[in-house]
Amino acid sequence: MRAVRFDHYGDVDVLVVRHADDPVAAPGRVVVKVRAAAANPGDIYVREGLAEEAWALRARLSGKDSDLPKWSMDFPAAQGQDVAGEIVSVGDGIDAWQVGDEVLGWSEERVAQAEMAALPAGHLVRKPTRMSWEVAGSMCVAPMAGLAGAEAVAPRAGETVVVSGAAGAVGAVAAQLARRIGAEVIGLASEPNHAWLREHGITPVTYGDGQADRIRAAAGGRIDAFIDTFGEGYVDLAHELGVPAERVNTAVDFQAAIDGRARIAGTNDAGGAAALQRLVDLVAGGELEIPIAATYPLAEVRDAYRRLAGRHTHGRIVLIP
Ligand SMILES: NC(=O)c1ccc[n+]([C@@H]2O[C@H](COP(=O)([O-])OP(=O)(O)OC[C@H]3O[C@@H](n4cnc5c(N)ncnc54)[C@H](OP(=O)(O)O)[C@@H]3O)[C@@H](O)[C@H]2O)c1
């Protein structure tokens, strides 16, 4: 098969697509023919060798470091967590899946960006027939972080919730979920994304200088919760807006969580395959949109990550083997 690999930490140019051994279905695992595998900012931190420190902070916070998927690599390294595809072989001990089943899920070992991937049977849910492959291959890392962030701040109907990065992959899900339960949601985003936010019942506010005043004006009263998906001072902004620490969640700012200024619920806190199934059901029912910013053939993996690194994509960037 062809697969994304890199032989040492570095910038996007270390990524190559080359031949690798086909994976085999060990007991408890299936092998899928990959149809779509989304890119995530976390892949960039891992590939640049910046993730080990963040992983150590997160392990300290969770107190369950041995359970967390490792963010450091043995080389040659593979890449990619989100995945969707068709099962081509099934390991011993699996009753739930058969060859030919269309599934979506995630790879903690980060092997998704390849023509084939071996995955634990428990990390998969069935792909709805009418869900596109690119959405199916985008359902895990960011949407589950959006779900965890929304649940961590527990918005109630009528409350006001602010989401930073509201049109990004994590923020778009967090904002829609908070809105869905009846909260008034203020979404921080650049102007090209305001129309999408409005269409989803979210009040757009442009970020940058003066944003605190613009948020207060849009809220017209108390701000109850804040979901940060960007970092870089948004936890401080939440406090400036009067939101108590227990109702601030950040997907990014581990130090703020260590300091007790925010919660840090993310993908691994969402609730695994059961949470993924809830998200899939919402998307299949037309109650949640997973925006797709762009798709790239696997061979153009470097271009996909250059675009993602710009930090202004609206939704998911997806590789198609
Ligand atoms: N803890 C976890 O489990 C977990 C899981 C997934 C992701 N994450 C992290 O969460 C972050 C977001 O991930 P993602 O996949 O949603 O990224 P993304 O899709 O690239 O979204 C980035 C967003 O940031 C916004 N943005 C850019 N510059 C900004 C600024 N100066 N102020 C405010 N917003 C700005 C962009 O908005 P505009 O386009 O409107 O400019 C865009 O919507 C990443 O750091 C990622 O590593 C954490």
TrEMBL record:
Lineage: Bacteria, Bacillati, Actinomycetota, Actinomycetes, Mycobacteriales
Source organism: Nocardia jiangxiensis
Top-level taxon of the source organism: Bacteria
Residue intervals of the Enoyl reductase (ER) domain: 10-319
InterPro entries assigned to the protein according to its UniProt record, in alphabetical order: ADH-like_N, ER, GroES-like_sf, NAD(P)-bd_dom_sf, YIM1/Zinc_Alcohol_DH_Fams
Protein name per Swiss-Prot or TrEMBL: Zinc-binding dehydrogenase
